[in-house]
Amino acid sequence: MAVTVPVGSDLSLRRSAVKAPNFNFWDKSWAPVFTLYLKANNSSLRSRHVVFMSVQQASVPKVNVSPLELEDAKEPPLNLHKPKEPYTATIVSVDRLVGPKAPGETCHIVIDHGGNVPYWEGQSYGVIPPGENPKKPGAPHNVRLYSIASTRYGDFFDGKTASLCVRRAVYYDPETGKEDPSKNGICSNFLCNSKPGDKIQITGPSGKIMLLPEDDPNATHIMIATGTGVAPFRGYLRRMFLESVPTYKFGGLAWLFLGVANTDSLLYDEEFSKYLNDYSDNFRYDRALSREQKNKNGGKMYVQDKIEEYSDEIFKLLDNGAHIYFCGLKGMMPGIQDTLKKVAEQRGESWEEKLSQLKKNKQWHVEVY
């Protein structure tokens, strides 16, 4: 059966109608992803009707994507637009991702690039905020890199948008405890303050380290993120579990570890929980909530504590060729490395030798900032 639903507003960002995903409209478990789809489209569609088809299938229905020509390239697109000649894209939507008790604000930002800045999962865009570089009068600001939080098809599944997951960087004076706007992050605040229709200068795409290896669709992928470092993993998981991509049928194991402060700080949690419910044989999801959970020693729970908790299993998976990814703040790595070294020693192994082998086998992927 078909259900016709009027949605959204028209910013003239689309030259052709956006294809609706083939969600089972009556399946309430699709609500989180469906809601995000509608919220994104609400900014770019008005006076149009989107048709949602209820599909009876033995497996969970996936979303049709286009254009499938995006699968044809043998190498990832790199630096199509450089800092001296950035691409002018358009903000489609800006949505707060976190709850009221989260420390700080994180936003999901959808950008319309019109299909002119294609990318692969795991790559980054550069953003040049408006204004003058205070250190170089007359020159634009330096480029800030952000991991892309969507697949190559974007949140509208039409290959014309990209999404960023951005935490607003604010500075509080240690003496007064008050916010000092003069020291706040220029680019993150520009992005989080943006409105639909605003223009944005982007460069890239860049990056090959975090590309999702697809030569073996049954491989194991262990993803470890802190905060907005979850961005590339959201792209991976949408490609694995949400989108119908004829050339990539994932049948392996994806295991996500996400470290944030508290429940209100969780990012894309409903999407990930949906995959966990629908693909329990292929997806695992472990949260480390530092302000709500305790580790085995009674201290705060961080991602490295979760890694230690499952260390035997993780090491066996790595021995069998699993890929492991780390994305987030640079400060996450020392604690994780120490934990892995300790576990390796307990197993009678040399962590330095093991790490060297993982890098040699291209199983080790790190992008921190």
TrEMBL record:
Enzyme class: oxidoreductase
Single GO MF annotation: poly(U) RNA binding
Binding site for NADP(+): 147, 167, 228, 290-291, 300, 328-329, 367
Domain FAD-binding FR-type: 84-212
This protein's UniProt keywords: Chloroplast, Electron transport, FAD, Flavoprotein, NADP, Oxidoreductase, Photosynthesis, Plastid, Transit peptide, Transport
Record bears the keyword Chloroplast: yes
Regions crossing the membrane: none
Catalytic activity: 2 reduced [2Fe-2S]-[ferredoxin] + NADP(+) + H(+) = 2 oxidized [2Fe-2S]-[ferredoxin] + NADPH
Subcellular location: Plastid, Chloroplast
Record has Electron transport as a keyword: yes
Annotated Gene Ontology cellular component terms: chloroplast
Signal peptide: none
One GO BP annotation of this record: photosynthesis
CDD domains to which the protein is assigned, alphabetical: CYPOR_like_FNR
PROSITE patterns: FAD_FR (PS51384)
Family that this chain belongs to: Belongs to the ferredoxin--NADP reductase type 1 family.
Protein name per Swiss-Prot or TrEMBL: Ferredoxin--NADP reductase, chloroplastic
Species of the source: Glycine soja
